[in-house]
Amino acid sequence: MALAWVRLDTQFHTNHKVMELVADGNFRAAFVYVASLAQCGQHETDGFIIKSWLPFVHANQKIAEQLVEVGLWAPTEGGWQIPDWCEYQPTSEQSAKRTEKAKHAAKVRWQKQRAKDSRASLKAVKP
Asked: From CA 77, how far away is CA 74, in angstroms rounded?
């Protein structure tokens, strides 16, 4: 199940890598980085950006190169990796475990509620 959100540091706007982009007037590249976080979270790639995704994160090759230059993306086979993704974002494995745990907890709550409702119905029927 896709992440419904990704973490964005409240000091993102003052990160030295972002500040380098902004100082050069590359505001779009900073936005692309945020869009790439969302894309990776949505598709649970653990920070891997597939090369064909560039249009979906509002990027082009030049912007990708700018992100690599400042260290927000790292080139890898078939695309780019967001460095330290797993340090700041839940991994796809962690997300799946959390989802399973939540489903199990909901099932237990539902079963308890059904049992309670069933007992209440039986008491109401007794003469």
From this structure: 10
| Pair of tokens at residue 127 | 């003469």
pLDDT tens per residue, range 65-80: 999 999 999 999 999 9
Encode pLDDT of 21-67 as tens digits. Answer: 999 999 999 999 999 999 999 999 999 999 999 999 999 999 999 99
Q: Tell me which residue of 3, 51, 9, 5 sits closest to 30, measured CA to CA.
A: 9
Nearest to 37 by CA among 28, 29, 47: 47
**Do the beta carbons of residue 90 and residue 3 sit within 8 Å?**
yes
Strand order across the beta sheet in which 74-76 lies: 48-50, 79-81, 74-76
pTM, two decimals, is 0.74
